[in-house]
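Table S2 (text version). Query chain:
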Amino acid sequence: MNPNDHLDAGRLGRANRHLRRGLGWGAAAIVLASAGTLVAASGRIEREQSTYSGPQARQCIPARLNVSAVLAGTGIAVSPLPGSHDASPRTQISLLGPPASDLVDVTVTGKRTGRHSGRLHPYSQGDGASFVSYRPFRPGERVTVKGRLLTPTGVRAFSYRFRISYPDPVRYVPWPTAAPAKPGEVQSFQSAPTLSPPAVDVTQTSPHDPHGEIMATPYNGVSQSGPMIFSPDGQLVWMDPLPHNLFAANLQVQTMNGRPVLTWWQGYIPPQGFGLGEEIVANSSYQPIMRVRAGNGYLADLHDFRLEPDNTAVLTVFSTIHCDLSSDGGPRDAAVTDTIFQELDLKTGLVRREWHSLDHVPITASYASPEQSSAQWPFDYIHVNTVDPLPNGTTLLSARNTSALYVLDTRTGQIVATAGGKQSTVTMGPGAATAYQHDAVALAHGEVSVFDNGGKPFVHSQSRGLVVRLNLHNSTDTEVTELTHPTPIQSASQGDVQRLPGGDWFVGWGGEPYFSIFDASGRLIYDAHMPAPTQSYRAYLFAWRATPAYPPAIAVQPTATGASVYASWNGATQVASWRVLAGRSPRKLKPVARTPHTGFQAAVAVRRARFYAVQALNASGAVLGRSPVRTR
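Corresponding structure-token output:
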């Protein structure tokens, strides 16, 4: 992984073409199949099962759940987990804790494939290494890892075993073509004819100007899909439209090397409702500076991605594997979706740690049923959608299909507390229980914000933003704040809650195309929406300053008395006004008009000339960028 993987400084669309080729739908995680109709999110949740008959499925659940990743007496946290049955055939052997120089004589042997040649690659953080085999393991085989650890008191041998899973790749199903848009549902611009973003209807404005831009990733609607930024007044700021069957999710501002960056997931969303793609990191000129790919042969999932301050990142992976579920009420020949999160070393691309839900959470904790699980619809028993590593050495997870929040010991990977669901270890106060929730984020003083979908199937009358206080000292979970829309919204999937700097709350309603701001008392003070059935997995409000690397755009349309000049600059946030230049020669253009910047596109009527250009000016009148010269 090269942090300096800079791409063409022009339109981000050129970078997307690299991504499309890089993902390559012939990847191991995707199998091409005949086209079919893709069900919507609520339909997917209703039919996450179907019949299947195939090769004998193997055991995927370990004999003991929730064991420690730390090898006794060594301080080494390993993955795959000792005793697990769900490792990828292309897994690394991650040895996290001591310096790489203290790990010696590491050998890796497959029961069927024999001893594996490979190399021990150190982490750039100086706290361990990954053994990377030169060839894959065989599905179903037992793997033995041995080595020695140099300690101040001598040499300590270590050894452990795990099994390789039987991967069950999901089918590639093209999305159906969207229905034609109705008038007013899609925006269009003369100066940017390739952009057709969804219209944003602001129905309630805030008494104070929300500081920032709204970030969303519209899809499944009548407009273009892709990462999109718009201002609170509904005006487009930036969009990078994606082609059919390629989607974006989770657009937000994060920090890398002390600077703000844009990050989003991009890839394919199969009918099963997770992501197969990679994470994009772009600078304030919209130039991709890094592509973060999942390790161990997986593709990155859309649900969560977090940049950490030590040049690491955490992302989610959904792995579908064959599994005998007969002991849990399912078919013998079945499949299950194992939700994974990885901690990656951004400088090397190595997997520092990998956590699997099947190793820690029992199948019986799910509110979904395994009875009709299949290869086409694996049993998505947990569906982790949030991974929030905390400075105190714990990690907070949210899992939709168990309706529970989990607190892990980050180092050992063991669950130390469960809030909600069938197996809660804390006492849930009135109003604190969630159902099929998303986006759990740890706040100060033990508080946690969460988007409580309430279904589907719906067990609450409406979806809501929720803040709870999770106290692990007295094992209680109590409601602090509830955020509900005056017109009740039932969002079957997706959604998020964001605490804003001034104490307000921003809510993205996920499966329903609404964006709202509530004040600290829970009163709705801002509301906007896109046309149904548009969805946006999450949405955020962030301060964002950007100057694109590409120039402003211009279009000229002749009129009876002169010309109408249209100007825009996709992604620019500091334009205060536009200046129109005109003249008889492209080298001798003079200012002929100036107009304030009031939206994505400016339109200026000017007298007839042969050549035109526009300049984008900041609040001080300085030129930020100039368009190409156009003729009338």
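Notes on Table S2: The first strand starts at residue 30 and ends at 32. Residues 12-27+170-174+200-542 form a domain with the Neuraminidase fold (CATH 2.120.10.30).
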